[in-house]
Amino acid sequence: MELPPKVKNMLLLDSEGKRVAVKYYSDDWPTNSSKEAFEKAVFTKTQKTSARAEVEVTALENNIIVYKFAQDLHFFVTGGEEENELILDSVLQGLFDAVTLLLRGNVDKREALDNLDLIFLCFDEIIDNGIVLETDATVIAGKVGIDSTDPNAPLSEQTISQALATAREHLTRSLLK
Amino acid sequence: MAQPLVKKDDDHDDELEYSPFMGIEKGAVLQEARVFNDAQVDPRRCSQVITKLLYLLNQGESFTKVEATEVFFSVTKLFQSKDTGLRRMVYLIIKELSPSSDEVIIVTSSLMKDMNSKIDMYRANAIRVLCRIIDGTLLTQIERYLKQAIVDKNPVVSSAALVSGLHLLKTNPEIVKRWSNEVQEGIQSRSALVQFHALALLHQIRQNDRLAVSKLVGSLTRGSVRSPLAQCLLIRYTSQVIRDMANHGQSGERPFYEFLESCLRHKAEMVILEAARAITELDGVTSRELTPAITVLQLFLSSPRPVLRFAAVRTLNKVAMTHPMAVTNCNIDMESLISDQNRSIATLAITTLLKTGNESSVERLMKQITNFMSDIADEFKIVVVEAIRSLCVKFPLKYRSLMTFLSNILREEGGFEYKRAIVDSIVTIIRDIPDAKESGLLHLCEFIEDCEFTYLSTQILHFLGIEGPNTSDPSKYIRYIYNRVHLENATVRAAAVSTLAKFGFMVESLKPRITVLLKRCIYDSDDEVRDRATLFLSVLGGDGTVDNDRETKDFLFGSLEVPLVNLETSLKNYVSYPFFSFLVLISFLGHQLSYILILQEPSEEAFDVNSVSKEVKSQPLAEKKAQGKKPTGLGAPPAAPASGFDGYERLLSSIPEFAAFGKLFKSSAPVELTEAETEYAVNVVKHIFDSHVVFQYNCTNTIPEQLLERVNVIVDASEAEDFNEVTSKALNSLPYDTPAQAFVVFEKPAGVPAVGKFSNTLTFVVKEVDPSTGEAEDDGVEDEYQLEDLEVVAGDYMVKVGVSNFRNAWEGMDEEDERVDEYGLGQRDSLGEAVNAVIDLLGMQTCEGTETIPSNARSHTCLLSGVYIGNVKVLVRAQFGMDSSKDIAMKLTVRAEDVSVAEAIHEIVASG
């Protein structure tokens, strides 16, 4: 029996439902085409909703999916039918905030593709084979955003608060636009 | 740009099209990957190439074995670089490439070096990578380091080791189990996530040791687990322990309930939700236990966060299925959710309200739903329609507004599944509520006037043919049906012709007019339609003698006597017979089958449908279990296995010996005569006829190595004086896992509700079966198997028949024939238990939803109706009351068409 909370997949799609980065941790979708079909179903089901201010949630094929959109990026986290929505929510929030930090507030497809290595690392730091590894965005971003020259630097408080400040600044600017 | 045309179209969103990976191609990237082999590693460049490889894999591209191996080998060279960013990417790509075990050797030493590095990030990631790719033998080599890592002072390293342990436990449990002590230390960690991972692993290690788990939970529920995730986990383990304890008969106060309740006050919402859910899912949860959980969920309902609202309404929806009364307090909050932006939440809120609503709120609710229906997707609408169907069965008096609602949505746009759900619901309502029949049929008629789904049209036409002729004015349906003959495709036209014929036959006054209509159909362009019209014309033109009538009726309405599968096999055998060549025409008329054989050469022996076996081929166990699904409104397929009243009736009438018993009055639910998981599983169905009782023993052989032959049930009826054994029908052979039936028939005084007790013994011949070939040995051994006793009780003579309006029916009965008495039912755990016991004892249908009892109720009135043997209608009003010591008293008022039956009901209760 699988008692620890399990995440079945994390999806980052663009505004047309195409993959930016995805990661599956479950055997529910064994082939690439079944994965694509699932992504299409999720995308179609959610595209008309507005999940910009708050994380939204829906049920699809015995799965619970929480999602959030930012600009032309759609973030999804899927769990089983019996899963605690709020745990999935904390994973999604961790993913979203960490990506926001890593992209310095410019959460859009172009920036994401330019920094795809960071996105992949970010996925890797949040979930390990379905098990929640970390949900605190600053810690995740800290572990990912490693300065190549100084291996121990990123974990220091300063870099993170700096990053947060930049992110906040970017956010305000985009709001004022 | 190769495609200028496309380019032009995309001009306006030029920026969107930008991608660093545009035009990326596998071959080229694999070429680029050669840069890994350069003597002087360029970390930046290499990182970029790895990202490209990862991108390709992520987009669903796959590498061949050779390509993957090549990439893997060159990637391993990058371990020489000291660049941390690059190292991270190397870890990632190794995990993605999932190298084979002989390749793994190449990286183990590098990874083991990283595992002992001073840099925390290296240690943590190297552990995760290594544990993902190694096998058992290598694991023993690095076990020492892993144990060390679990207690590492850096929480990231420790978590990495613990999570890896969780994965490894599946493949190498014996090794991971040795880490218990280190993992135990992890639970005391100050880091929230280490605590969480350690708890998960420790529980997984001990999961098969019930006592250890219980101890673990016991100690942790008292202590303070800091992390919300760990707390959620602990709640899950706690509910598991509670379940196990209940299974093992440790009764008394529910243990750990207090802990669950205290979690409702936790500061993290995820913990509150987890605890509330755990409480609502407790076995036999009482309303007192439920209340605090419902209260917190109610607060969530008005949260600004959709996830919280969704979680709460989803949980309450489930609670409403078992404890509708407990959820009613939330109805006001729930109603405001009907207009929720999130349609999943709105649908859940509506279906919850439909479950908890009372009779008076139905109309208001329907109004709200009508507004809501126009802007949700079909899948949500189906959920709502299904909820409305069950609501209608619960409150038959409200059928009018519900039927209006259904007919309105039937007229609106919608896909096939949605329309089918509506049609099914209307059909169910027509069947359950006689008053709703006429209006329901007219709604269906209107629907087929403009129905794009052939399947639905034919099903409705078939249904009209059965129900329509029995209405007050059958002629009004004719127009709708005949219109189909003009306007539809051949399939629908053929169905319409059959339906017309049914009206013509059933309603004498319509016969001449139907004949005229059918005559027009013989010029139809489709031959099936013409054939049917011709066939029915000749049937309708018969001389009208009684005998002929009966045959015609069987022909039009009778179900197919033989299972379709058997018929198909017989026909196949017949046509493959080498001396003849045939043309076989088969046409299906609803459930009815007619067959015409045109023999091209004179045959000595024409195909005889009577030669087809009527024995229903039994189904494998698995399939049988899957049948617990909800019944659909429209007729079940004719070849359905023999279960349910219709099925039994068909099964019994297919056995010649039983044909003379007359009409089947009632079939009981199967009664198990063996414990679960015994060698032979036997249950019995009691079929009551006017002067006979047939016991149908459903036997299953659960031993693959055995074949049973000559299976018979020996019944000792010495404790059932009124019964005399007439005949029995043994089973010739009972192979493994294929249920089959044996029958024993008793005679009893006609029309008398005789009761008695029967003891049963299964006798048979056992033959060993060779499991490899599946062949049985020739010699068998006689053996017998004691089954449990079986009783025929008074309730077996009562058929559940509902009434749509209990009050009217009650007042329609003569008050003179009323019999009242009071009974003490002794101490019971709850009122519901007593009510159910009485319902079961009498075997009657509960009316107007009076079978649901609020869990804390102290008094209740239950309305029952049924038909007693001899077709005597019986109504019962049972009033229950419970005093402080849980003693229950019942006042039973019975009205029946026959006073003696009313007295008989009292006798049943007095002796039960």
TrEMBL record, chain A:
Q: What is this protein called?
A: Coatomer subunit zeta
- Where exactly are the transmembrane stretches of this chain? none
Describe the task this protein carries out: The coatomer is a cytosolic protein complex that binds to dilysine motifs and reversibly associates with Golgi non-clathrin-coated vesicles, which further mediate biosynthetic protein transport from the ER, via the Golgi up to the trans Golgi network. Coatomer complex is required for budding from Golgi membranes, and is essential for the retrograde Golgi-to-ER transport of dilysine-tagged proteins. The zeta subunit may be involved in regulating the coat assembly and, hence, the rate of biosynthetic protein transport due to its association-dissociation properties with the coatomer complex.
Q: Which SUPFAM superfamilies match?
A: SNARE-like (SSF64356)
The record's subcellular locations are:
Cytoplasm; Golgi apparatus membrane; Cytoplasmic vesicle, COPI-coated vesicle membrane
Q: Carries keyword Cytoplasm?
A: yes
The protein's matches in Gene3D superfamilies, at most eight in alphabetical order, are given as:
3.30.450.60
Q: Where is the AP complex mu/sigma subunit domain?
A: 7-144
From TrEMBL, chain B:
Domain Coatomer gamma subunit appendage Ig-like subdomain per the UniProt entry, residue ranges: 648-792
Q: Which GO terms describe its cellular component?
A: COPI vesicle coat; endoplasmic reticulum; endoplasmic reticulum-Golgi intermediate compartment; Golgi membrane
Annotated Clathrin/coatomer adaptor adaptin-like N-terminal domain residues: 27-540
* Ranges for domain Coatomer subunit gamma C-terminal: 795-909
**Localization, UniProt:** Cytoplasm; Golgi apparatus membrane; Cytoplasmic vesicle, COPI-coated vesicle membrane
Q: Which GO MF terms does the UniProt record name?
A: structural molecule activity
Q: Which UniProt keywords apply?
A: Cytoplasm, Cytoplasmic vesicle, ER-Golgi transport, Golgi apparatus, Membrane, Protein transport, Repeat, Transport
* Domain of life (superkingdom): Eukaryota
Q: Region labeled Disordered — which residues? A: 620-639
Q: Which InterPro entries match?
A: ARM-like, ARM-type_fold, Clathrin/coatomer_adapt-like_N, Clathrin_app_Ig-like_sf, Coatomer/calthrin_app_sub_C, Coatomer_g_Cpla, Coatomer_gsu, Coatomer_gsu_app_Ig-like_dom
Please give, as recorded in its UniProt entry, the membrane topology of this protein: Peripheral membrane protein
Q: Does the keyword Zinc-finger apply?
A: no
Keyword match Protein transport: yes
Instruction: Please provide the Gene Ontology terms (biological process) for this protein.
Output: endoplasmic reticulum to Golgi vesicle-mediated transport; intra-Golgi vesicle-mediated transport; intracellular protein transport; protein secretion
Q: What is the role of the protein in this entry?
A: The coatomer is a cytosolic protein complex that binds to dilysine motifs and reversibly associates with Golgi non-clathrin-coated vesicles, which further mediate biosynthetic protein transport from the ER, via the Golgi up to the trans Golgi network. Coatomer complex is required for budding from Golgi membranes, and is essential for the retrograde Golgi-to-ER transport of dilysine-tagged proteins.
Concerning its family, UniProt says: Belongs to the COPG family.
Question: What is the annotated quaternary arrangement, including any partners?
Answer: Oligomeric complex that consists of at least the alpha, beta, beta', gamma, delta, epsilon and zeta subunits.
Q: Name the chain's protein.
A: Coatomer subunit gamma
